[in-house]
Each structure stands twice: as C-alpha cells, then as structure tokens.
Design goal:
about 280 residues; alpha/beta; Rossmann fold; seven-stranded mixed β-sheet; three-stranded antiparallel β-sheet; binds S-adenosylmethionine
C-alpha cells in the first residue's frame, strides 16, 4: 500500500497492518467450527441475507458467503480501507459475487439499505463509542423475525495462566485500558442484553464461550498470537515500554516450556436475539 493510501487508512486501537490482518485470519480459523454451528443454529442458511458488521479482512464474510450460497447475499461493513480492499480481493479471487463490501464507519455513516435476515457482529461492539447506537442501527437493518448474533467479551480478565503470572495479568490490564482509552469497552457483552431488549429484540440464546488451552493445541495460537502482536501495538501506542514487552514475551516462552501450563481464555458471550 502506498503512502497516500496509508494517509486515508482509518486505523483503530488494534491497528490494521499486515501482521494484524494475518492474525485475524488465524483467529477466525481457530474459532471457525464454533461460529459455523452458531450461525446454523441461528437459522442462517442457503438464500439468507446477512449483514457482517465490522467484517475486517472478510474471513467470516467468506464463510457466510459459502453458507448462504449464490441465492443469498452478504453485505460486509468495514471502516478500514486496507481491510475492505483485502476482503474485496479475497471475494473476487473466490468468485463470491453474493458479497458486497461497504467502507463505512459504523458510528457515523448510514448502513446500506436492506432488510436482512441476520446480522453478525464479532469483536466490534467492544471498539465503538456507542454500543447502543450500533444495536439500534442493526435493529433498523433487520426484517421482523431477523436475528442479531454477537460474539463479544463479557469478562476479558478471565484471560490468565492458571498458575500465577503477574506480567501476563498486567498485559491483560494494559489491553483493556488501551481499548477504554480509545472509547471502547472490552466487557461490552454485559451491556448487550439490555441494549437489545431496549431496541425491540427478544433474547434467544446466551452462551458463554471460554476455553482452557495448553501449548501445542490449535487454540493456544489464538492468545499466543494476540500477545505477540499486541505487545508490538502497545509499544507503538506508547502504553508500555520495551522492558515490559520483553518480560511478557519471556514469561510466555517460559510458560510454554512447562508441562503443567494451561491458560483460560477471555470469556466470550454468544448472543442470539430475534427482532420483534
Ligand atoms: C477485531 S476486528 C474483528 C473483525 C471481524 N469481525 C472478525 O471477527 O474477524 C475489529 C474490526 O472492527 C472494525 N471497526 C472498529 N471500529 C469500527 C467502526 N467504527 N466502523 C467500522 N468498522 C470498525 C475494525 O476496523 C476491525 O476490522
């Protein structure tokens, strides 16, 4: 990407560089089975029209497109120029003509018109200034009987090694403060049930998604890759110093050599709600 394109890139607290783009891909792959069964249980099927809210580089968008097939439609909303371009290229390469990508700011821009059967929103409500406005805009985009599906954190600080590791617990606190400092709320899922019912939804399912992972397991790569990428980002944002970043990397490397190591992941709440 050229400097002039970089100048219009609308960044956010996690950044949108190539490493973060790749990390989002890994993250989607390890969560993929959970997500596919959630979508199916929520009723997304061939022919469905789905809104992908804050789609990133389009990893989930692609799976949604395959699930709804050529008779369905997926409309992806994303603010980052870089991510929207990556999503567009990926859909074109796969011939997924049922997808359209809209470069929008969820807070400031109108959503594209349409009465969708479902809206999918994962790890996005935690970054916006007003989750209430986000829920209202999603409600306005759904048909009556349509479903809003969220995967958002309800308790980010469940993320810890089972044995004591002060530096990794401090890292989790740094992550949470950086999101709050940028107008987000890591534990946004705690507020969603009320925001949804206020916006005319009926809650259908609320399922906690938490894992206890060990080094070498596929899901270990999810927290591991986030720690490495986000230490770089927190350094770039001036929220930690090089000494802290080094200590955190060393603590993780040491933990990975211990046979007793196990890590609890941040608690995600899966919410499916139906619009009246
Ligand atoms: C952690 S990523 C998740 C991406 C995708 N939902 C996924 O699960 O792979 C958060 C995404 O939200 C986007 N985002 C954050 N704030 C936004 C806003 N106000 N408008 C549009 N997109 C936003 C970011 O650019 C980023 O792509």
């Amino acid at each position: 990407m050229s400097d002039s394109e970089d100048a219009i890139e609308r960044d956010y607290v996690l950044g949108t560089n190539d490493d973060e783009l790749a990390r989002l891909g890994l993250q989607h792959r390890v969560w993929r089975d959970v997500v596919l069964s959630c979508w199916r249980a929520a009723g997304i099927t061939a022919g469905s029209r789905v809104l992908d809210v804050g789609a990133g580089p389009g990893y989930a968008t692609q799976d949604l497109a395959e699930l709804v097939g050529p008779t369905g439609a997926v409309v992806a909303l994303e603010r980052s120029t870089r991510y929207a371009a990556a999503a567009r290229a990926s859909m074109e390469a796969r011939g997924l003509g049922q997808v359209s990508i809209h470069e929008v700011d969820l807070m400031r821009d109108p959503f594209p018109p349409g009465r969708f059967d479902a809206a999918w929103c994962r790890w996005v409500a935690c970054f916006v200034d007003s989750p209430r406005l986000l829920v209202q805009k999603i409600a306005a985009s759904l048909r009556s009987g349509g479903v809003a599906i969220f995967h958002e954190y309800a308790d980010y600080a469940t993320w810890r090694l089972l044995h004591q590791s002060d530096v990794l617990e401090q890292f989790v606190q740094h992550v949470m403060s950086s999101w709050r400092n940028n107008g987000g709320e890591p534990n946004v899922a705690r507020a969603l049930p009320e925001l949804l019912t206020d916006a005319g939804f009926t809650l259908r399912t609320l399922i906690p998604r938490i894992h206890c992972v060990r080094p070498g397991e596929p899901l270990w790569e999810w927290p591991r890759s986030f720690i490495h990428a986000n230490l770089d980002r927190l350094l770039e944002l001036g929220r930690i110093d090089a000494h802290f970043a080094r200590s955190a990397r060393e603590a993780l490397a040491a933990a990975e050599k211990q046979p007793a190591t196990a890590m609890l992941t941040p608690l995600v709440l899966e919410i499916v709600a139906t619009k009246a």
